[in-house]
Each structure stands twice: as structure tokens, then as C-alpha cells.
Sequence to fold (759 residues):
Amino acid sequence: MTREEAKKLVSQMTLEEKAGLCSGKDFWRLKSVERLGVPEVMVCDGPNGLRKQREDSDNINDSIEAVCFPGSCAEAASFDRDAMFQAGAAMGNACQAENISILLGPGANIKRSPICGRNFEYYSEDPYLSGQIAASHIQGVQSKHVGACIKHFAANNQETRRMSIDVEIDERTLREIYLAAFEEAVKEAKPWAVMCSYNRINGTFASENKWLLKDVLKDEWGYEGLVVTDWGAINDRVIGLEAGVDLEMPGSGGTTDVMLVEAVKNGNLAESVLDDSCERIVSRIMTYKENRNDSAVWDRTEDHKLAVEIAKGCMVLLKNESDILPLSKEQSVVMIGKFAEKPRIQGGGSSHVNAKNWSSALEQVKTMENVTYVSGFDTRDAVSEDEKRLEKQRFNDALAAAKNAEVAVIYAGLPDVYESEAFDRKHMRLPEIQNQLIQAVAQIQPNTVVVLHNGSPIEMPWINDVKAVLETYLGGEGVGEATVDILFGETNPSGKLPETFPIKLEDNPSYLNFPGSTTKVEYKEGIFVGYRYYDKKNMDVLFPFGHGLSYTTFEYTDIEVNKEQITDEETLEVTVTVANTGKRFGKEVVQLYVQDVESQVIRPVKELKGFEKVALEPGESKSVTFTLGKRAWAYYDAEGKGWYTEEGEFKLLVGASSRDIRLEASVYVTPVQKLKRVYTMNTILGDLYSNQEFKDEIAELKRMCDSVFDTDGEKMLGESMDAMMEAQTREMPMKSLPSFSNGKISREYVEELLKKLNA
Ligand code: BGC
Fold:
């Protein structure tokens, strides 16, 4: 239903009906206005499957059987927009079959710290990648005329005190890092709903943050959908509505509806504000009603197959020394570790779906004669003496089995209690027993492979002792099939890390300020999140952003740009050729990073601005073209309230990871709209000298200064004094020119010049 039509409908509603529409009927349902044909609709959690509460149950955790797709942490590693669309479309179809109008997801929060408990539900440390993957997921869901709800807007990057913490953050960091993923997805995919987060941002709850919800999201980005609270995030309902929160969830039992009615009646709330919210809500409900497909069939078997396929494309081969992988079915292989028997397919909390159809790696290898299994460890810590004895026994059995096999594959990972919604991880390590086991096995078995099940990075103290590591993240219900396929070479791995794996937690830029104090957390690292930080500091990392190996090899050649010089309002095309130079079919994620070669503004070394996943047969090559617009060059200037480009050369770095750049080219970019600087008596000469607009006036000023302060190169005072004079002049504020020049440069002249420059 169009906005105009919704407006007509809303104009026929009573004040009470309108207020009622702005909060839920219960935990999962929105209210109806029967007499006007507005139906009651239901929503449910995503993002990686449907958590629909059973109709006949009072328990909000009692949900129907669903298909569990790979977690968002894994999905991002696919770098595959089409696959994300397909997963989204499958879930959208399931929503139609189950009469769900909005699926609550995806989460597009940035992974500021590797130990945020909910990282498994988020995509990346990089806003471009997060935004692109989120947009594809949303487009997929919405292709079935069901809404997606991007969450948690904004700066919800930790679970500790998530409902009360105040995030102190500067605007540039917000815009470039934490809002950017949402901006991209909102503009590109137009989600039906945006869920505001629980936390405060610079003192104001997201649910009351007019700047965030109204000024930026709705007005600046042109967002037409509805804003819903995270469950229970409302603080003051009237302030919230005015700030841009259209829908409060879950319902308040009518309490806050009364508040809205009273606020309108006593003149504290303009009815037009309420109307605007109702129009947004009604237009989505009616669009759902109009496109309702009650003959949709949810074929869980088909969706399971899709979940397996998608999982295969998400897994990241981190290390593969001596090409130990893929394994051959002739080799004697021992699988070790509880996760081979019972994989961890998903994270805990509101995204947890009731998946029944998962299969283990063990099940997949049961017809392979040369594969054996020992559990090696339990995912629960041993507490009692008996448990400790058993633990020792398992450990020793695993060592014996590893010694007798040709290859040991250890299925390790984080147990459920280590990471979940509602709490952050305490450290970045695997359970100690697993680290000990990997280390011990690797000592007696040179062919040790580790398969990981974890929603976020871990430290790997044994990395130099094992031959291969396959990161499966939380791979959904198809993870068992997918890992075995990859281990034995049926599928060639093609995932890339959507985040940096630091060597240790202390290396992470947020380390000193995570999770903050009792009331606030300061994002002091600013824009230097993830690889932006490690690159700038030139630090070693365990595995860099974008890293992932393949069983084949790829060659990058022939980088070309279609123009050598552009304005920032034009687009640039960058083309490269990628060839499969190995013997197997494979997929490569070609990544494009942009570097501002010289800048006055502090900027990252490089930023991801494009990626494509390319499928190639052996010997085949394809050309890949990226189109770059203004955002590829721009940074956000908080004083200038906008995105600006600094004139100059930009490098285009194309490669297989952020630290494996294979080709580079460059372009000269001239901004059309320059950042207008305001010059004052306290502006220093050095800053004025870089002004390009008033070249003549500045040249004249420079001549005067050179002669008065003797910085024109005549060596009068000795080298160091000359250098000092030159630096001192560059640092001198305008106000000091008359006195330091002993009146030779007059105050009137300085005032006139400033007037001219600021005109
Ligand atoms: C979570 C949301 C979720 C909602 C409903 C909240 O606690 O933060 O992501 O959609 O609950 O279950």
C-alpha cells in the first residue's frame, strides 16, 4: 500500500486507534483495526531462521521447528551477495507459509571487539561488507513480500549493560563506521523496519534519539519504513514517538497508548507526529496483507539443502601447509572432538531456532571405512573427580588414536556457554582442555588439522604446530555435511575472513575501553576499528581481514581504470582479470581497497570499497569490474556536516586479502564541493598556505612573511635556526603577524585578508 493510501486510512482512525497501533498487542503481534480492514500481524526473530512461537504455547521460547541457516558471522565470510539473497528469499517464503509479516533481522552492528557476545549474529568489522551482505539478505526476504528488520540501530557493540550503557562516540566515527552499514542497507534495500537499540548514544537513548532516528535515518537517508524498538527499549513513550520510534514492542498492555492519547489531548504531542508513525506502520501491514501468499509451502528438506550449500561457501580455510587438505578417502583419519558428534550450529539467545534436521560430521563419514572417531573432550568443564578421571581417559584415548592414524582432524570450538546474547566473552581463548589436546595431538601427529566451530575469533597458541585450520564459524544445520565435503575435497573452500583475527585480545584497538565503566563506554579508538587499526599500526595479526585459502590458485592481472582523473561526482571503473591457475574448480573473492595517498585528515591506510566472488574452472579467466562513486574517496567532516574528498591521488589496491594486494592503479580525484574552512585570527599560516582557492592572495602573504621572517632560504642564522624560523612561521597564528613583524604586516591587512578568504 502506498503512503498516500495509508494516509487516507489513518485519517479515518480515532485517536485511540492510532495510539494503539503504535505498540504491540503482545510479545509478537501488532494490533489490528478491524473496522478499517487493518489485520493483526505477527513478527518473529531471525536472522538465520524463523523463531516463531508455537501458537498453542505461552512460552516465548517454545518455537516451531525451523531450518537453521549459517549464522551471520559465517554468512559474511561467504562474501557472496547471491547466496545471501537466496537464504533471505528462503526465509521470506517460510514467513509467508507461517504467516509472519516481518522477520527480525539482520543485525548490522560492527564488530568493535572480538569478544562481544553477540558477534556471531553480526557480519563484520567493516561497514562496507556489513552493509552489502545485509542489503542482500533484506532484498532476499523482501522479494517474498515479507519485511526484514535491520537491527540494532545503533552502536550496540557489546552485551555488557546493553540496556543502559551510554556510548560516547564522535560523529565522524559514527558516520564512517557504525552508521555506514545501516546507511548502505537502508538506501539500497529499503528494509520495512529498523530496530533501534537499547543503549544510549552520547547521553540519549537510541529510542529517544531524534538526531539518529529522525534527522539522520528518516530525513537525511529518506527512510520510509517504520522504526520499532528493540524489545523493551522504550524509555519515555511520548519523547520516543517524537524522536521517531513508530512502534513499541512488545506491547505495554495499553499503558503507553494512554500516554500518547493524553499527550495529544493536552497539547504535548502534535497529532501529525502520531499520524506519520501510523502511516508508516499501516502501509507495511497492508502491503503484507495485499501480497499475502497463503499457498506458500515451506519445504524444509529443500531449505536444508540450501543451508548446506550456503554453509560450504562460508567456510574459511585459514591454513593449509603442504596442501594437507583435501584429505583422501584412502588415508586413515581419526576425527577427534565433541563437535564432530554434535556440531555447534548456531548461537544462543533470541536468534536461536528450533532446528531438528542438523547432521554431524560423524554421521557424514559413517560409510568411510578409514575414518574413526574419539571424543577427546567434552564441551562441559569437568568438575567432579569422576568427570576429571573421564576427561583424562578421553584425552589419552585421543592421543593413542591420533598416533595410529595418518591424519588427525580435531573438531574444536567454543561451547554454548562461552558466547551468547546477553553477555560478552571473558577472553578470546578456547577452553583450556581443547588447547591442551590440540597441542598434545600435534606433538605426536604431524598431520593435524583443526576444524573450528565458533562465532568469533579465538587465539590459537598452537597455530605453528598444526598443518591446517578450517574456520566454519557457526555454520547452521548443514555444517556437518559442509565440513566433510570440504575436508575431502568435494567442495573447494572459498570463504574469506570478514574480520581480523588478532594474535591476542590485548592487540584489539577497543581493548582498553571495552566494555567501559558502569555507565559509559568511550569509543576512543575512533575510526580505527579492525584492520583499519592493525594496518595503521603495521601490526602482525594472526589472520588478516579478507584472508582465506583455496585448493586451487588464482592469478590477478591487467588492472585498468577507465579514467586517470575524475571529479568526486563522477564514477570510476576499475577492471582486473582473475584466472584459475590450478587444477580444481574454485571461487575467489576479489577485493578492492582504496587508499588516500596523501591527506591532511587522519585516515586509515586503506578501506574496502568493492568485492566480487568469481567462479572459475581450471584455466578459466574472467574480468571483474568495480564501479566507485564519491564514498570511495570521502571522509566525514563533523564540522562541515557532510562527506568530503581531499583533492589528490588515490590508490586502488586489488587483492586476495587486505594483506595480499596483487595489483594497484591510481586515480587523481578533484572534489566538486570543497570543505569550506573558516579562517580566523587563530588560523596558523601553515593551514592558510594549503588553500588552493585564493592562490594569488596566499602567494602574496607568503612573500611578505618570507621577507619579514627571513624564511626564504638565505642561511643567515645557521641551519637549525633557519629551520626553526621556518617552522615557527608555519605555526604562527594570524593574530601574531602584526606584532612579530613589528608592524610590517598590519592588523588591517590581516583582517581584510581573512574577510576575503571567508567570503
Ligand atoms: C534482541 C532482538 C530481538 C528481540 C526479540 C531482543 O532482546 O536484542 O535482537 O529481535 O529481543 O526477541
